[in-house]
Design a protein that fits this description.
Strand order of the largest sheet: 1-5
Radius of gyration: 22 Å
Order of helices and strands: HHHHEHHHEEHHHEHHEHEEEHHHHEEH
Shape: globular
């Protein structure tokens, strides 16, 4: 049984020990510490830490939020933001599982129920981020020093990210602005009724805009931190989702210019230092949750859960779309391989047979029994495609064609610049989004914004989880989660 820690109260002795540790040992850019207990700090704890530790206290709280994004809760399938992304991808058209085990309920759509543990995790995870963000936002005065205000702006970004996920998970993306969705909590400490989609969209945009403006001149010390480029990436996602094409183009241009596109696509996407990384989290031997980790569930040639028996596979129809000359085709097994075969150069053989269409995109190093990989939340290539789509939807066909060419020629030397226009060009861009962003937590959200339903009876040949061969219309109630029963029981102002 999953342990619900939402209302855990830290003992006073633990608190003073934590406070001493925070003030004495937290360095400015040290985001690798284990902030386990800080997940459950009360408002008084936040106030005391801030007063006692000044900016050091705020840094520790900021680090606690970032480590919570990385680590999440205690269950094997609750490893923070990457767990949510993987689960949502398994609700899409392009990723399947070979066996019913961890994350299987996402693929079968079983966990949308009020009492589902996965549902409770998603709700608790994002509202915990919101709660801690509210503490910082409401604690830091508007007229304080600029170096302290930075943490207020970051908190606005965290809160916006959480609400953006929740709004799209618990209500249809294309729902009218007047439709009720989820409560907005700004730290009032009172049970709030459901807000409308329009109110949520305004709150998200207000938070993101405030964060972007406040962080525009801020220089982060590592890609683990949120800065204006990360906020721009979420503004690009927001505006693409809600069809504000010129704004999506503007902010995507900022996000895509972080780093550079890598011509090496066989690196495993396990290093924060990857030139394409916009935002992520470093995972070390100290902070790794080993089997309760993204790579345990996605690195097929490692000895984690995925390598044991539940391979993640690509929809064979999408695999067939990828040209033979495209390096991204090597992200997936081109045939079934017997045990011990070294499928990916410079890696290792695995003790199980590897089914055709299995993912080879995510590989944790240094070897099969040790899988410590950094988490990449955002890559710049997403925003090449975001800008290209936004341009195409504004009938700026030539610019969109060029941008798609710029990306695809780093993946496929034989790619020829598209001459398509209008909806045909948009469709091509969307297909390459499905390829490039496979496994990055984007697919089901793209389906929702584009009004695409689920169809796993499309003639695909890759392994599909038993009970997962579903067909669900785009606006069916199964495409969104129900507000968890625990929340309904504790909040008299909401219901499903």
């Amino acid at each position: 049984m999953k342990k619900n820690k939402k209302y855990s109260i830290i003992r006073i002795t633990q608190y003073f020990l934590l406070l001493f540790s925070v003030i004495q040992f937290i360095a400015c850019a040290d985001l690798d510490q284990d902030f386990e207990d800080e997940r459950y700090l009360s408002t008084n704890h936040f106030n005391t830490i801030s007063e006692a530790g000044g900016i050091v206290g705020l840094k520790s709280i900021d680090g606690a939020i970032l480590s919570y994004f990385r680590d999440g809760e205690s269950s094997t399938d609750e490893f923070g933001l990457k767990a949510v992304g993987l689960g949502m991808d398994l609700r899409g058209n392009d990723m399947d599982m070979s066996t019913s085990t961890w994350f299987g309920a996402y693929s079968r759509y079983d966990n949308i129920l009020l009492t589902s543990g996965d549902n409770e995790f998603i709700w608790k995870f994002f509202y915990k981020v919101i709660k801690d963000s509210n503490e910082i936002i409401n604690l830091v005065a508007e007229n304080t020093d600029s170096d302290i205000l930075i943490y207020k702006y970051k908190a606005h970004a965290y809160r916006a990210i959480a609400y953006f996920y929740l709004t799209r998970i618990y209500q249809h993306t294309r729902a009218d602005n007047s439709v009720k969705a989820i409560p907005i909590d700004l730290g009032e400490l009172t049970p709030n009724p459901k807000s409308t989609v329009g109110e949520l969209k305004k709150q998200i945009l207000d938070d993101l805009t405030l964060a972007y403006n406040g962080l525009e001149t801020y220089t982060r010390s590592s890609k683990e931190e949120v800065d204006a480029s990360v906020v721009a990436a979420f503004l690009a996602r927001y505006h693409l989702t809600y069809e504000n094409w010129s704004d999506a183009e503007y902010y995507a241009d900022i996000a895509m210019k972080v780093g550079s596109i890598s011509s090496d696509v066989a690196h495993g996407f396990d290093e924060l230092s990857l030139s394409e990384t916009v935002w992520g989290a470093e995972v070390t031997s100290t902070t790794s949750e080993v089997y309760s980790s993204f790579f345990s569930h996605t690195s097929q040639i490692n000895d984690g859960y995925s390598g044991w028996n539940h391979f993640k596979t690509i929809n064979s129809n999408l695999y067939d779309f990828i040209p033979a000359t495209d390096k991204r085709k090597k992200w997936f097994a081109d045939q079934e391989y017997p045990p011990g075969t070294i499928v990916v150069p410079n890696t290792w053989g695995h003790y199980r047979a590897l089914p055709k269409y299995s993912s080879l995109k995510f590989i944790a190093h240094p070897g099969p029994g040790v899988f410590i990989g950094d988490y990449i939340y955002l890559r710049n290539t997403e925003f090449y495609l975001t800008k290209a789509e936004a341009l195409a939807r504004q009938n700026k066909n030539g610019e969109a064609q060029q941008l798609l060419f710029d990306l695809n020629t780093t993946r496929d030397d034989s790619y020829v610049k598209s001459i398509k226009t209008g909806q045909d060009l948009i469709d091509e861009i969307l297909m390459y989004r499905r390829v490039e962003l496979w496994g990055d937590g984007v697919d089901s959200f793209d389906m929702a914004r584009n009004g695409v339903g689920l169809n796993r009876q499309d003639g695909r040949l890759n392994p599909v989880i038993p009970g997962g061969d579903l067909v669900i219309p785009a606006l069916d109630y199964k495409m969104i989660f129900a507000i968890p029963q625990k929340e309904i029981d504790s909040n008299p102002n909401i219901s499903n």
